[in-house]
Design a protein that fits this description.
With 118 residues, this protein is of the alpha+beta class. It has 2 helices and 7 strands, in the order H-E-E-E-H-E-E-E-E. A hairpin with a 2-residue loop joins strand 2 and strand 3.
C-alpha cells in the first residue's frame, strides 16, 4: 500500500516523493510518506492513516507544497492507488503543521490524511 501511495503522489506532484525517510542524496525540496495506522477491513473497505512530510530550504515553499497536498487530497474520491480504489481521502487538519528544521536547516511541514480504500 505505501509504495502504491508514493507512486500516486509522484504522479500528482512535481516534487520528488519517497517512502519512510529522506534519502541522503534527495533534493532539498522533497516529500516523504509513511503509513501510521489504519483499521481492519469492513467488507471490502479498510482505512489507512498516512503522514506526509514536506521539506524545503524556505519555510514558505515547504508550507505551500504541503498546503497544495491538502487541497489535492482532501475529499478526493474515486481515484486508483495501485490496484485499489480510493473511496475517500480526508485531510486531518486544515493547514500544514510546522515540524521544525532538519540538520541542514531545511524547513519541515507535516500533514495527516485518512484514506478509505476499497
Amino acid at each position: 500500500m505505501l509504495m502504491d501511495f508514493v507512486r500516486f503522489l509522484k504522479a500528482n506532484t512535481a516534487a520528488r516523493v519517497y517512502p519512510l525517510k529522506f534519502p541522503t542524496d534527495a533534493p532539498d525540496t522533497c516529500i516523504i510518506a509513511e503509513i501510521t495506522g489504519g483499521t481492519a477491513p469492513r467488507g471490502t473497505v479498510s482505512s489507512a492513516y498516512v503522514q506526509i512530510y514536506v521539506r524545503a530550504l524556505q519555510a514558505q515553499e515547504a508550507e505551500r507544497l504541503a498546503g497544495n497536498l491538502i487541497t489535492f487530497l482532501d475529499r478526493r474520491t474515486n481515484s486508483m492507488i495501485g490496484d485499489k480504489q480510493l473511496v475517500l481521502s480526508e485531510a486531518q487538519q486544515s493547514e500544514p503543521q510546522y515540524v521544525g528544521t532538519d540538520e541542514n536547516n531545511r524547513s519541515l511541514f507535516s500533514i495527516n490524511v485518512r484514506l478509505l480504500i476499497g
